[in-house]
Amino acid sequence: MSILLVTSSPRGAASHSTRVATDLAQKLLAADPSAKLVVHDLVANPLPHIDPDYATGIYMPAEARSQRQAEVVGVSDAVLDELFAADTIILATGFINFNISSTLKSWIDHVSRSGKTFAYGENGPKGLVTGKKVYIVLASGGIYSEGAAVQMDHAIPYLRGVLAFLGMTDVEVIRVEGVGMGADAVTAALAKATAKVDAIAAAAANADQAAAA
Ligand SMILES: Cc1cc2nc3c(=O)[nH]c(=O)nc-3n(C[C@H](O)[C@H](O)[C@H](O)COP(=O)(O)O)c2cc1C
């Protein structure tokens, strides 16, 4: 198994999403020591915003691209290689201005490639990134899974939608929510998220044992 961990918090070592997502990656590794982990920190190694050379270059045959077009499309190709090589993908993001972090949005822009990760056929759009398990770890100051602010959650519906469009429908969400509501709320949010991480890791260990038996 190969795990791709994509982190994107702008808050460095204080990030709850990075901490919980890293904990999940480590526990999945412990469940399957033969697994490989690739970490892409989108703040330390950000992807460029897509630009005119990208938006034209992706629709051209490789041999027709200018040097700059080849460079910017090459960035996307490398990110796609990371994505396709993974069986399990962990996407970690803070809830920033009611949506995902802009660095993760840039990652989405680079992995959404016509003819590579989706295609249009007689039956409409078809996602080409299949057979992946995706975990989303979302940390938010407020609570958006229930209550009055549910309609302000533009992160999880967006991610679920675009991932499904690309073929990734096996998606599980781990929320670290309400962390802006005081120290007790942070403790409770982390405990709830960690309990979910532990349940996921235990299920993965059981599945590995069953497969080996
Ligand atoms: C620039 C910025 C914008 C934020 N916007 C929101 C927001 O719209 N709603 C919210 O509930 N929390 C918001 N927060 C709080 C973050 O969601 C919270 O700090 C969360 O823990 C960030 O994830 P991280 O810990 O992985 O960095 C914002 C934080 C920052 C730094």
From TrEMBL:
EC number in record: 1.6.5.-, 1.7.1.17
Catalytic activity: 2 a quinone + NADH + H(+) = 2 a 1,4-benzosemiquinone + NAD(+); N,N-dimethyl-1,4-phenylenediamine + anthranilate + 2 NAD(+) = 2-(4-dimethylaminophenyl)diazenylbenzoate + 2 NADH + 2 H(+)
Residues bound to FMN: S9, S15, H16, S17
InterPro entries: Flavodoxin_fold, Flavoprotein-like_sf, FMN-dep_NADH:Q_OxRdtase_AzoR1, NADH:quinone_OxRdtase_FMN_depd
Coiled-coil zones: none
Cofactor: FMN
Residues covered by the Flavodoxin-like fold domain: 1-199
One family name in Pfam for this protein: Flavodoxin_2
Transmembrane segments: none
Cofactor: record remark: Binds 1 FMN per subunit.
An example Gene Ontology molecular-function term: FMN binding
Keywords: Flavoprotein, FMN, NAD, Oxidoreductase
Family, similarity comment: Belongs to the azoreductase type 1 family.
Function field: Also exhibits azoreductase activity. Catalyzes the reductive cleavage of the azo bond in aromatic azo compounds to the corresponding amines.
The protein's assembly and partners: Homodimer.
Protein name (record): FMN dependent NADH:quinone oxidoreductase
Organism name: Mesorhizobium tamadayense
Gene of this entry: azoR
